Structure formats: C-alpha cells, structure tokens
DNA sequence: ATTAAGCCTATCGGAATTATAGACTAATTG
DNA sequence: CAATTAGTCTATAATTCCGATAGGCTTAAT
C-alpha cells in the first residue's frame, strides 16, 4: 500500500493540474475540496515544491501552482518522493538499492527475478501516467457517468 | 516493500520445494540455512500450515513439509497471506477492498484506474511464479554462474 | 518415561505514519 | 508603513505496525 502522503500528493497535484496556468491556489482550498488535513497537506506541498514540481506565492493572492507542465509529472516521481522505491524488494531497485540481509547469493535468487519483473512493469505503467493523462481520463470518466 | 514475513516465507517455501517429497524438515534447519530467526520462523510456518500450504509432523523425526504440489503454490498466495492485498490502494483490491476515506467519487477517480492497471499486471505475474518455476529458475541461474 | 519437536500466548522495543500546534517569515495592499 | 494574508519551519503527540523473543504447553516417537 502507498502512504497517505503519496495519495494526498497525487490528489493535490491532479487538483492543481485541472487549473493549470490559472494562477496560485490556496492550501486551504485544496485541503477542503480534496478532504486532506490542512496542516498535513502543508508539509506535503512543501516537499513537492522543494522537489521542483510546484511553485508557491506568499501573501495575499498567494498559494501553490504547478511549475512543471502536467505531462512532465508522472506517478512514479511522486511515489518515489514520498514512499521511496516502487519495487517490493530492496534488492530490485536501482536508486534505493540495498542487499537483503538474509540472502545468501543474490545472483542465484529466483525470488529476486520474479520481483524484478513486477517492478519493471509497475515502473513502466506509472511513468506513462502523467498529470495530463490523469486529468484527461477524469473527463472521460465523468462523461461516461453522466450518460447513465 | 513486502514484509520480512513474506520474504522469509518465500525463502522457506523454496527451501521446502527443493526437497519436495523427501519427508519433513526441521524448523531449526530451515532457520539456519536460510538465515531466519528461528522463533520468528515458527510463527510463519504455522501460518502457512493453517492456510493449508504446509503440513507438519510433531515429535522426533518431525518437521514441516509441503502439503501442496510446488506448481500449486504461487507468490500471490503467499503475499496475500502475510501482507494482505497486492494492490497499492485499498480501493483497487477485490478481497481486501476498502473505500479511500478522502475520495469524493470512486467512479471518476483517474488515479484509481492507474493503480488498477498496476495491480492487474502484478497479480498476473505473481500468479505465474510458482514454487516449481522458482526452483527451476534457481537451477538455471546456478548453471549460468558456474560457467563464469 | 523420556526426549524431541512443533504449538500457543503474551509481550516488548523501535520505527514509521499520520497528524497537530505554534511561532516565524514574506508578500501584498490600503 | 502597518495590517493582513498566506506560506514556512520546528517540534512533538498519538497511533499503529513490525520484527523479534520468552516461556510454557502439547504431541509423538522410541
């Protein structure tokens, strides 16, 4: 399971992507509309800002906004920022690599190979899922629902 | 990341699968050879027994053995037993389903769809990875290594 | 009866997660 | 330039989960 942080971050980012280019949005607005505890959301948005994805403006008329284009931000980036590796075993990640303590020989570990397959597929899918595709899909889903 | 329990369980199961049909194996043997804390391993093997995957014999000459055939036990089963859902969001699993608290409308959640794709691929891969294929792959990897 | 081995219950320490409080800083506006 | 608005920083509380251990109980073989 991913952390609440990652989930909240994704919801906040999609919220911002919906209004991309329309100026800063208040933390309090995002918090209310997305049902996220405001103080918690503050730390999350700060992290996103420090990683270069978001920008902020202080004072009246301030708030947060997307600094990158929606198509340049994908789910993999967000998960890695808040939850670390996407892989399910430390020995199958590249940037968060760690040896499994109990493992006798990584080179002949068949379990490792199985988890490597899953990691590679997951990363591939998550990289294709950008804020742009998410917002677009949302629209499609909305239309479908209205027809019912 | 998966829990140590799942990882230890998989290592223990592969160990038992290597000697499938050759009678019970001591907890202490598995613990030593697979570098697993024995007391911890006891609880794990019990869970595997209660789920029907393993059988046990008490007393002298006792130990644990595979009750199911190696090709009938896959990684998905093991992960679900110890870590619950394979999905990364509670709203994309079937047997462990829970609504995301903050979610306004599941039907139009584009994030949900993205995570559903990942879940489906992961489950597909994990179901294909059985104790049989793991043991076989191990042999292949060993041969490859010896050639070097 | 003795001994070997798995079974059961309880519990502990530590880490991570989720969340909150409160003071501080920067920018806007009248 | 004072007042207000809104993001930033530091600290810490509350919970939950995980990995691990202890110790006694039960069962089966010899």
TrEMBL record, chains A, B:
Keywords: DNA-binding
InterPro entries per the UniProt record, alphabetical: TR_Rrf2-type_CS (IPR030489), Tscrpt_reg_Rrf2 (IPR000944), WH-like_DNA-bd_sf (IPR036388), WH_DNA-bd_sf (IPR036390)
GO cellular component, one term: cytosol
SUPFAM superfamilies on file: Winged helix' DNA-binding domain (SSF46785)
Domain of life per record: Bacteria
GO molecular function: DNA binding; DNA-binding transcription factor activity
Pfam assignment, any one: Rrf2
Keyword Cell division: no
This protein's name: Transcriptional regulator, BadM/Rrf2 family protein
